[in-house]
Amino acid sequence: MTAGKKVILSGMRPTGKLHIGHYSGALENWVSLQRDYKNYHLIADYHALTTNLDTSEIFGNTIEMIIDWIACGINPEESPIFRQSKIKEHTELFLIFSMLITKARLEKNPSLKEQIRDLNLNSISYGHLGYPVLQASDILLYKGELVPVGEDQLPHIEITRHIAGLFNQYYELEEGRKIFPIPAPKLTGFARLPGLEGDAKMSKTLGNTILISDDAETIKNKIKKAYTDPQKLRKGDKGHPEICRIYTYHKKFNPEETDEIYLGCTSGKLGCSDCKMNISQKIINFFAPVLEKRKKLEKEKDQILEILIDGEKKARKTAESTMQEVRSAMKLG
Ligand code: TRP
User: Fold this and answer.
1) CATH value at residue 248
2) What is the CATH number of the domain that holds 99?
């Protein structure tokens, strides 16, 4: 039963196989929300074009990402999975919304400033400037009330709220019925995991990731090479777990032992190599069932395509009905 449930719209760009930072920062949360909400899972393939015009890998990346989603527990029968580019209403609503919001408001978007850190505003595309407007259409076409996101996405949700408010102010259905809810962000409990090296979070572009699909050997090797506290050179040296990425991994994947590890590290009794072997095994165990499910799904790629087509049918139905309301309220067509 989905009647009466609040609507959640979550989305990711199809960047390929997901890493364990995606899991703890987003996917885990999506899976636990499935019970109490009506979920839509969007694959933001148009958004992918804002940073990469090479489309040759988008389809393959989409399939790999869906495999990760389902292997981690997303149930596509209850929660449609669909590509943005397959539901033409996204572009229609995007165009209408782009008439409501000012260029100045979009230029102020801190996420955009972050993304184009080394460029200037004149060198980004018109579509890139409109990134949050497209995201607003993603959310509002399905009348999303909650959007599970990380902190970095908060400015985008703010723009969605702004646009929904503007639309409702200009247009309404008969008897003053408003079409769009004002969606709220739903922050995930755990911040993105730190990457295997450097100060940044785990990210595909930085190549500092452990993939959900990595096998046991790969995980062990990657963790073996990961950076730890630079002041702890050998067993016996006193470490600083609060600045160590491995300790953060323990907090997430080995919560029962964190106190013991903290004491062991700060007193010097626990060496980095043992600490790393321990967390490697915990991560391997944690993702073992996911990996098994993933392997099965890998062999059934036709089925993944069917899941997508089915999800797109369901999403389209909702999107068409919202657009009919929009056209009617605007007295268009
Ligand atoms: N901007 C999101 C990201 O980069 C992806 C996204 C596109 C999205 N449309 C969305 C997220 C709608 C939530 C809701 O992660």
Assistant:
1) 1.10.240.10
2) 3.40.50.620
